[in-house]
Amino acid sequence: MARPRIKDVARHAGVSEKTVSNVINDYVHVSERTRRVVQEAIDHLGYKVNLAGRHLRKGRTGIIALVVPELDVPYFAELARHVIREAERCSLTVLIHQTGADRDHELAALAGFGSTFVDGVILSPLALTAEDLRARAGAPPTVLLGELLEEGADHVAIDNERAAREATEHLIGLGRRVVWAVGGRDDAGLGTAEARTRGYRAALAAAGLAFDPAALLPVASFRMPDGADAVDRALRAGGRPDALLCLNDQLALGALRTLHDHGLRVPEDVAVIGFDDVEGGRFSVPTLSTVAPDKAAVARIAVDLLRRRMDEAAEAPDATADSSAGVRSPQDLVVAHRLVLRESTEGAEARAR
Question: What CA–CA distance (Å, rounded) separates 302 from 90?
Fold first, then answer.
């Protein structure tokens, strides 16, 4: 049986082909009755929109890339699910690429992988520099996640410095005075870890607590074994914290295991808070307090911004980000976050709420 076409839907619904097209493209000036009749005809005939043909007519492939350092890190896996959902809403397909925080891989993603099959890129970089971003002439439209490396780039993220300060202030407000930062980095870098460390230090200073460089526990990567090992080394060296600010939930979950192995109770002896609000933290024992970024909003805003940039690029292919050819200036968009307080800081009372 031949695949149904728009004209078949139009004939079945008793409307014009233009009306069917308006319904398919969600044109606002269509009555609800007409929209319902056309949709019933589409469902009855089993008509499928030819997305490939639609994109090709616009000079596009309909494919965007989501590029992350490590896909098996829960935060990025959960973010990918939200990005795919938002892309589907815009009739876009998502290609997911893992860089391993390798600069060459990130540069390849920034350049659209050296081909024309990607219309745009959502990129979470760890190894790129501001100079790399400034040299991206001719690259497909790109939206950056994480910390802002270059003022001339579109960017979507939470305020990591403020979030870490709020989390540390909460620990201090519980009466904790020896707060270790697991994953902390005491340098002037532009990464997420550096921003969160600045927030941690700002909270200590505001509370009149001296900063101890030994309270920063660096890690090779932000996974559970790294958090467990960093805390284990510090405890064996004789340190005794009464709180841990962990720069992601994976580090925090690893730290919980080490504290248990050393006979330290959470939160009675050591309060623990993480970042990212990944699913595993809701099922750990104790459940994990965390900074929760609005991952759905990050995905929605990033996809919408990228889609607008792709439209602008199609309408003004020779325009640059700072030209007057109809392309708006780069946007730095901040997404909301909140503290989610669970048993690892609040104790048994968190279960009762």
Answer: 12
Whether the per-residue pLDDT at 8 is higher than 90: the answer is no
Question: Counting Cβ atoms within 10 Å, is residue 181 exposed (0-12), middle (13-18) or buried (19+)?
Answer: buried
Are the C-beta atoms of residues 169 and 162 closer than 8 Å to each other? no
Strand partners, 334: 157
The residue count of the chain comes to: 353
Q: Closest Cα partner for 160 from 185, 128, 133?
A: 185
What is the Cα–Cα distance from 54 to 142, expressed in whole angstroms? 22
Exposure b/e, 73-88, CB count within 10 A at least 16 = b: bbbbebbbebbbebbe
CB contact set of 158 (below 8 Å; sequence gap of 6+):
293, 294, 298, 334, 335, 336, 337
Q: What's this model's pTM, rounded to 2 decimal places?
A: 0.79
- Kindly state the tokens that stand for 295: 């991952």
Asked whether the predicted pLDDT for residue 55 surpasses 80, the reply is no
Q: What angle do CA 26, 29, 31 make, to 5 degrees?
A: 90
Residue 37: φ, ψ to 5°:
-65, -45
